Amino acid sequence: MKFGKVDHPELVDFTIPDDHPDTEVVLSNTTNNDAPKIYVGCAKWNRQDLKNFYPRGTKDELVYYASQFNSIELNATFYRIFPEEQYQKWYDKTPEGFKFFPKMTNEVSHLRRLNDKVYEIADRYLAVTSQLKEKLGTIFLQMHNNFGPKNWDRVQQFVEYWPKEFPLAMEFRHTDWFTDEKVAQELYHLLKENNIANVLVDTAGRRDMMHMRLSNNEAFIRYVGANHESDYQRLEDWVQRLGQWKNKDLTNIHFFVHQNLERESPLLSAHFIEKLNAHLNSNLTIPQTLINRDKSLFG
């Protein structure tokens, strides 16, 4: 994931901004007496990307990955609509309680940019994706960097068309969605009214996407490490913020770890899970092959 990469991450202020005032409002409208549902994972399970994660002799990467993590941010579905049989295989290879958070095909977001031709494509995508059944988590739709507020009508029509039985999160990258107050208010009202999560992206070169504004009771966070020693502290800062949101009755935490060089994503995820378990009193599995590994990645 090259988005937001910078040459000198040591010069970036990675401080998590204060919450947007509307986040407090959103969380205050939900009463949750149960522990939040927490899913943490990587973006992919490919052995080449996650070098040194898999034990020697691993025969099926997804089977092993799903024994270590409870979720995956499924980026492969961005590039093609897989046949129904493939989703059934993924379902069968993963244990009870595992969830997939698939990315909407780029035919919808990038090639056709939510025009009036995308609805048939979205329907085909959902028909096969639904084969994941109860293992289907939130689908997320990532818009192109240059998809700005001039396309408001397309966003509104798509959101209103989207079948509500499928949880959806949306990631907007054009800066005007956040910096233009009138646009931001209209966008977040639309997301909130349709129970769609607003994706938060923590990456070095686009700190404007850390708008800290939840639109429903789901924190969908895409964290991009910089392959720098600061990655650990950044994750620990997120643990503290998620603890604050938990105390305000946050229901769903969906946190996915990327890096510009993905090979260390499992190790960072394990560090995050360890700290999260301690702070939130959760009991997520810490990837076993990583527990005793030297955590000095950057020396």
TrEMBL record:
SUPFAM superfamilies: TM1631-like (SSF117396). Transmembrane segments: none annotated. It comes from the Bacteria. Pfam families: DUF72. This is DUF72 domain-containing protein. It comes from Flagellimonas algicola.
